[in-house]
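step=predict obj=N-acetyltransferase n=216
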Amino acid sequence: MLDDHWPLRGLTVRTPRLELRLPDEEELAEVAEVAARGVHPPDARPFLTPWTDGTPAQRARHVMQLHWTRLGAWTPEKWALDLVVFHEGRPVGIQDMRAQDFGVRREITSGSWLGLEFHGLGIGTEMRQAMLHLAFADLGAAYAASLTFPDNLSALSVSRKLGYRPDGISRDLLHGRVVESQRLRLSREDWADQDRPPVTVSGLVGCEEFFGISAG
């Protein structure tokens, strides 16, 4: 019955090693615990989100509250999909994609985090490839954008490997000071030219109106 009213719960993206989907409540608690253990070294600041400022319990609550907030605020005109990434059956991080007026603009912006203990395994690249397949192949996106601090070399490396091109900068506030992020953009044409792992998407039928697009 719940899936009848909220079919996004049945949307699943699979790669050779990963499964991306919305979590149930216990799985949400598990991925929140992954964040509580850390998503980057404590002496680094690779994200606009201040992951190391709070306690582990506060990091866990942030993950859960953001997930609930985004689902509760969802409209076809403005949405944010937080897909939990499962590796070997366990949550390891979150890959998100967000859009405003997607039905007209056909552009998404993505972000992600991965538990520190899962870094260095190629999971970050594979989960982004899964998200890009959903965006381009299944939802009909024209562009995918990403924002990354200039010193976040691992994220920049993933973006460049996947064909993103420089697209200017974004200026934001962090702890009362201005910080700059490198904007990157991937076109549908550049995505199509990349070698990609096989990706399968299931459960999209019935979800189209949630993304502001037509079925078929």
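step=describe
Strands lie at 12-14, 18-21, 78-87, 90-100, 107-114, 143-148, 165-174, 177-187, 200-202.
step=end
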